[in-house]
Specification:
The chain is of the alpha+beta class and about 140 residues long. The N and C termini lie far apart (about 45 Å).
Length: about 140
C-alpha cells in the first residue's frame, strides 16, 4: 500500500489571510484606507519572500466591527513550537501593514515576537458559538 505525506509540497509558510468581505476592504466603511494598495503590498512581499510568506483573501472572517481584519497563521515550524493564529483588527493604515509584514517576514507566530504596537491590535478569534448564532 502506498502512503502519501500530509503536505506533499513541503512545509507551510507563514500565511496572511486578509478579509475582503462585506466590511473589510470596503471604501464605504473605511474611506481613508487604500485597500487595494494594502493587498498589493502584502502580495508583493509574498512574491519576493522565496516561499516563506503566503497571502490569501477571505470573503468574511467575522469580526466586522474591527475591520480590516487579518489573520497571521504560523508556519509549520511555528505550529511545532505551539503557536496559533493571531487575529489582527483595525489594520487600516501603512503602519499596521508594516507591522504585519515585519512580523510575518521575521517568521510570524512561534518564530518571532510581534511588534509591540501590533499586539495592541490583536483581537480574539470569533468563537464557533458566535458563528452558529449569526446564521
Amino acid at each position: 500500500m502506498k502512503t502519501y505525506p500530509i503536505r506533499p509540497f513541503g512545509a507551510r509558510p507563514c500565511t496572511l489571510v486578509v478579509c475582503r468581505g462585506c466590511c473589510c476592504g470596503d471604501a464605504r466603511k473605511n474611506p481613508g484606507t487604500d485597500h487595494a494598495g494594502q493587498l498589493a503590498r502584502l502580495r508583493d512581499a509574498a512574491a519576493v519572500s522565496g516561499g516563506r510568506l503566503a497571502v490569501r483573501t477571505s470573503d468574511c472572517l467575522g469580526p466586522c466591527g474591527q475591520a480590516n481584519v487579518m489573520v497571521v497563521q504560523p508556519s509549520t515550524e511555528g505550529r511545532r513550537r505551539g503557536a496559533r493564529a493571531a487575529w489582527i483588527g483595525w489594520a487600516l493604515d501603512d503602519d499596521a501593514t508594516d507591522d504585519v509584514l515585519a512580523w510575518a517576514t521575521a517568521g510570524g507566530p512561534g518564530i518571532a515576537p510581534p511588534p509591540a504596537t501590533l499586539t495592541l491590535q490583536m483581537i480574539p478569534p470569533p468563537s464557533d458559538a458566535g458563528r452558529r448564532n449569526r446564521r
